[in-house]
Write a structure and sequence with these properties.
- The chain is an alpha+beta fold.
- The chain has two domains: 217 residues, T-fold, CATH 3.10.520.10; 86 residues, T-fold (Orthogonal Bundle).
- It is built from eight helices and 16 strands.
- It has an eight-stranded antiparallel β-sheet. It has a four-stranded antiparallel β-sheet with strand order 1-8-9-16, with no helix packed on it. Strands 4-5 form a two-stranded antiparallel sheet.
- Strand 11 and strand 12 form a beta hairpin.
- Helix 1 packs antiparallel against helix 6, helix 3 runs parallel beside helix 7 and helix 6 packs across helix 7.
- The longest helix has 25 residues.
- It starts with a strand and ends with a strand.
Length: 330
């Protein structure tokens, strides 16, 4: 996603690094240097807490403590991790396991997690990893999170970044600023407006060649009813494995890296972690099922598919997306 602004005066900007990417904040207010520094410190502290809780790249994180544990009894989880797990398990059930945060063994096997590898996994390796995948093997209760399989490896990369966006938005709210735009690695959440004008963000489309880059397909005016936007796609995070292209979104049903005509899925939602997880779900469903799922579950979604003939791409929109947006062509 790309963020667009037509008026720059009195927009205070903050930025930094997190989760292997960058965070950016625009606030429709004039903050002095002291206020900027104070808010930036709060934001970075909150994002550091998210990483310490949910990163699979930090061996001492709260999530990795759970992943390493062989204990079948409930393990205490923080409020933030509980919030993310609850949403993830809700969408897993709703999608009948198409979305599944226990996909970690497969993500690692394909080399898209903290454990890197260059070769394509064998069918036997995939079959072995699939034995330890299944959201139904997790139980979230008042006592904590329990695993019925000690080899379960939870990967929250499909939802944690969206949650990070929500945490930043809540931090800005708590600081008393009612008009802002937050972005982390293309995930968006906005509130209010920019001096009477809506915050505008661009939905990317793949350039010719499909994986070589991106350009703006259209520009969306954000609103407070669906203030969050997340996009999942197969045209950026990919690698060659055994002479074939492998994409980072791994199907928890068969353990394979699939591609379809669906190149990206963008979802608008009330919070960014929800948008993030649903965008991944739609990518996993592919071009044959994603739009029907979005309409059946009242998701505001835009899908970009590879085109045919002289059309490089095709845009599909759910009914809820069409009703929700105001669009300006770039």
């Amino acid at each position: 996603m790309a963020c667009g602004e037509s008026r720059a005066e009195n927009v205070s900007r903050l930025s930094g690094e997190t989760m292997g990417t960058f965070w950016n904040v625009s606030i429709a207010a004039e903050l002095d240097d002291a206020a900027k520094n104070t808010l930036k410190q709060r934001i970075e502290s909150e994002l550091e807490a998210v990483n310490d809780s949910m990163s699979t790249y930090r061996d001492t994180s709260e999530l990795m403590r759970i992943n390493h544990s062989r204990d079948a009894s409930p393990q205490t989880v923080s409020d933030g991790l509980r919030r993310v797990l609850a949403k993830a398990l809700e969408i897993s059930k709703e999608s009948e396991g198409v979305y599944d945060i226990t996909v970690g063994p497969l993500v690692n096997l394909w080399g898209f997690g903290p454990e890197k590898r260059r070769d394509k996994p064998s069918d036997a390796e995939i079959a072995a990893a699939l034995q330890h995948v299944g959201y139904h093997k997790l139980q979230l209760s008042a006592e904590g999170l329990s695993k019925s399989d000690p080899e379960i490896f939870i990967d929250l990369s499909s939802i944690a970044k969206g949650y990070g966006v929500d945490v930043v938005a809540e931090t800005i709210d708590a600081a008393g600023y009612p008009n802002y735009l937050v972005e982390i690695g293309g995930e968006i959440r906005s509130k209010g407006n920019k001096y009477g004008a809506p915050w505008r963000v661009g939905i990317e489309r793949p350039e010719a060649g499909l994986v070589s880059g991106a350009a703006v397909a259209n520009i969306i005016a954000m609103n407070d009813r669906l203030p969050a936007m997340a996009t999942s796609g197969n045209y950026r995070n990919y690698a060659e494995k055994g002479g074939e292209m492998a994409y980072h979104i791994i199907d928890p049903k068969d353990g394979k890296s699939h591609s379809s005509r669906l190149l990206s899925a963008t979802v608008l939602a009330g919070d960014c972690m929800t948008a993030d997880a649903y965008a991944t779900t739609l990518m996993l469903l592919g071009d044959k099922k994603a739009l029907a799922f979005a309409d059946a579950h009242n998701l505001a979604a835009e899908l970009i598919l590879a085109g045919e003939g002289d059309k490089p791409y095709l845009i599909q929109r759910s009914k809820a997306f069409t009703q929700a947006i105001q669009e300006e062509q770039p």
